[in-house]
Amino acid sequence: MLYKKMLRDISNYKIQFISIFLMAFLGVFIFSGISGEALSLEENINDYYQESNLADGWIYATDIGDGFVDKVTDISQTKDVERQLVLSSTPNFTSNPEIKLDFIENNSISKFYLVEGTPFDLNDEYGVWIDKNFADEKNLKIGDKISFKVNGIEMEKEIRGLIYSPEYVYNVPYYAIKPDPSGYGFAYMSYKAFPIDPVPFNVLNVKFDGDAQDYSNLLDEKLGDDYNSFLPRDLHSSVSAYQNMISQLKMIANALPLVFIFISMLMLLTSMKRIITHQRTQIGVLKANGFKNRQIMVHYLSYTFPVLLGSIFGLILGQILIHKIAYPLISQFIGNAFFSGFSYIR
To answer: Do 246 and 222 fall into the same domain?
Structure first.
């Protein structure tokens, strides 16, 4: 009897209960969807950094020779080092794009991820492994020849692989606010591909134990003026931009749903007060027919089921639909869309 009465009352007040359902649905929908995206982004990028052995810091100097490396490795907190020569180049395209060239000693720290092609070969003087996003924009394929101009030197190389890099996840040029893969990219080559010997390495990737600030102080003591700067991982442009995006998503997920949930609770409270006020006579009749206060209380508490139903639907659909909406938007700001989170894609 009470169940039929509840359905009849909800039907009579259907506009109010539909509104309550929608507010509860939207609140949980936004919270579950956006927080799910943020957690997925965070989990996947951390896994990617660990798999690629991303450097804990980068030491920049004019010329990093063997003696410089020995001084850094002598620091007790240093676990591993790898030199790079990083230069800006202009490939042979009429649009004059910019490509960051990384000449590396090996591929052990900040390892790039091979999407297509042959694995990195340190002895390959003629091969280049190039940014997949840039290659897609320029219709470049494995085996194509590409020329780079670096400080007046022109080098022609053959594309051996299409790659992503943990150092260029958020790969945005200085003149833009989002990635421009048609005009800005990166490429990796063996240090043996550089036409000058010895190679004037200018970046030292380091893995170290302890706090970044303490390590920076140790570098000052050990190297003095022999180096230009030290960049810890947290301050790297790609790492910090990605982390800021995750923080913003978490902030939205924690703040915005509260508005909808508060409105749904307020609407539910107002509707229930109106129903109970109008049904005082019916409540008296129910008591006269033997219904206890507890039964009547449970009966009116059951009117909150639209909130529960909306929350369940929001929890399920939020993680599915928000992803379909968010992924294209996030991909516009993440140069390596393949590693833009979402564990069920990887």
So the answer is: no
